[in-house]
Write a structure and sequence with these properties.
By secondary structure, this protein is α/β, with parallel strands linked by helices. The protein has a single domain, classed as 3-Layer(aba) Sandwich (Rossmann fold). It contains 14 helices and seven strands. The protein has a seven-stranded mixed β-sheet with strand order 3-2-1-4-5-7-6, sandwiched between helices. α2 packs parallel to α4. It is globular, with a radius of gyration of 20 Å.
Amino acid sequence: MDDGGGPQWSKLNTTYQAAFFDDQPPLYPWPNLLRSSGLSRVCKPREAMWKYALEGLGMVQGDRVLDVGCGTGVWLDRLKKHFGIRGIGVDISKSSLKTAVSKSSPELGFLCGDGPHLPFTEGYFDVVVSLDVLEHVEDQKGCLREMTRVLKPGGSFFLWTLNRAQRYTWNWWLDKIGIDIYDRVAHDPMLLPDVSKVRDLLDNSGMVVNRLVPFNSFFTLAMDEAIMLIVSAFDKLGLFETEGWLSRNLGKGFLATVDLFSRSALPFLSWLDRPWTRRGYSNGVLVIARRNADRAVGLRNCDSFEEQFGAGIPAGSISNNFSLRLTRCEDEWADSKLQGVATWMKK
């Protein structure tokens, strides 16, 4: 894992990443249907695993949730629908954020920013979620440090990232036969996270790692990829852009089918993957951790934020460098979101 002082890989430069995801945002089948269904529908085995793990966090209505690398806001919207959370999404892609604002629940907030520079006060969020993000970040230590910093004592951290240990996995074999598994999703193999170092960094940041689950080794990943090939074909046909009766009902049927298959097949596919996962070999890894209240120092109750900074600043609000971070986006639209998010955080 890069510690911020190693070689700078242009593919993982923030400007490159932002441009890449402006042009190629994450692909979801019938995203509007997924938003409205919450987590009652999953579209591949990996999502089924995420659903069960997310439900195990014990999120309740009104919890403050931060989604780092939120993209177009689909997952944050689904969490809002399923748990009734109050959420903020952060992403470097302005195009994706505009989609998030236009398509997501108006009760959610979205900001332009990056993981190593989160513009929130310490200990504000009940839950921090980050899915498929860490492997895109140059300063991975800084990103983990920031995501855990903004968690309140006892808060939950839900991280899905790629795994450097991929020997003999589905993607390892694809790479060996010359199929591109990196450039198409803006990955640099040199910066795939080392799971043991991720755990050490979390331990040193006052976190207690509860679960570390290698997943998507061979059969589960092959099934995820097969489903996404079908989704990609539907996308090329323009089925996700239309709101007609045919497209909507086709979407409902497709999501119901892959949901049923993903949930029912997950235990068997995971069992087939055990020769890899028992050795720690997988394409990805799920990390679930909690902030240790005993080791958290220097934190104040976010409900008394005004006592520290004055009544003119919203309780638990953003830190003073927030406007600077928005200015770096060089986008008037991003700056206009400041007031809306400040209002959200007063609630």
